[in-house]
């Protein structure tokens, strides 16, 4: 297994903000276009961007939460395998997102990303590097893989996406505080899913 190249966390988050500005110039954007803008070697920024998208109203677009969940699982799985360049199947990269809805969602992301850029710093960094980072990738993989099966259950995809977003922030910024926040959110998601399961049964 390998880890992503060491990059200044502020730069990577700033790159995502710049990417948002670039994407907003297009009338309609495919997931493949977004990945290309972020960079096919930028695994964790892609995880962060995609998970944040699911937290926005775009999660209401039919099938998008499932597609994004599969994307999260694929990116996390390839991080675990130590791949240097991301591979995605055509049925994901060809999926297009309506420009007006995407523009509204991206506007909502700029504020949170700016806040993240300001508050993150290298704290409890041992919670963001191997072997702990492999656990975080695994959690992201499981969250993403679960999303297609939970799309019809209200709030679950957004809650799992929030877990992935917090862990991605931790990995990008080497900020272990966000690891702890992500694990806490994971516990909340697990409790909610357990409650829902009991109600269904």
Commentary on this structure:
The chain is mostly helical and 201 residues long. It has one domain (9-200). The chain contains 9 helices and 2 strands. Strands 1-2 form a two-stranded antiparallel sheet. Helix 4 runs antiparallel to helix 7 and helix 8 packs antiparallel against helix 9 (176-200). Mean pLDDT is 84; it is low at 1-10.
* Helical amount: over 70%
What's the overall geometry? globular
Q: What amount of the residues lies in strands?
A: under 5%
Mean pLDDT: 84
Helix-and-strand structural type: mainly alpha
Query: What is the number of strand segments?
Result: 2
Q: What is the string of helix and strand elements?
A: HEHHHHEHHHH
Query: Could you give the order of strands across the largest sheet?
Result: 1-2
**CA-based gyration radius:** 16 Å
In DSSP terms (H or I, runs of 4 or more residues), the helix count works out at 9
Describe the main β-sheet briefly: 2 strands, antiparallel
**Low-confidence parts lasting 5 or more residues at pLDDT below 50?**
1-10
Query: How far apart lie the N and C ends?
Result: 40 Å
Number of structural units classed as domains = 1
Descriptive keywords:
single chain, 201 residues, mainly alpha, two-stranded antiparallel sheet, 9 helices, 2 strands, globular, disordered N terminus
């Amino acid at each position: 297994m390998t880890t992503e190249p060491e990059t200044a966390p502020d730069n990577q988050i700033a790159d995502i903000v710049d990417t948002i500005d670039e994407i907003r110039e297009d009338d309609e954007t495919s997931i493949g276009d977004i990945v290309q803008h972020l960079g096919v070697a930028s695994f964790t920024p892609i995880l962060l961007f995609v998970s944040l998208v699911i937290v926005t109203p775009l999660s209401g677009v039919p099938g998008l939460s499932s597609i994004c969940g599969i994307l999260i699982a694929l990116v996390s799985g390839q991080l675990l395998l130590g791949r240097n360049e991301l591979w995605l199947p055509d049925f994901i990269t060809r999926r297009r997102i309506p420009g007006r809805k995407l523009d509204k969602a991206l506007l909502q992301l700029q504020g949170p990303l700016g806040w993240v850029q300001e508050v993150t710093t290298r704290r409890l960094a041992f919670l963001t590097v191997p072997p702990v980072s492999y656990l975080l990738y695994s959690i992201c993989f499981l969250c993403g893989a679960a999303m297609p099966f939970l799309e019809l259950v209200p709030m679950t995809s957004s809650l799992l996406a929030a877990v992935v977003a917090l862990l991605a922030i931790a990995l990008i910024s080497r900020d272990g505080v966000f690891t702890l926040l992500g694990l806490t959110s994971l516990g909340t998601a697990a409790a909610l899913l357990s409650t829902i399961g009991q109600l269904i049964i």
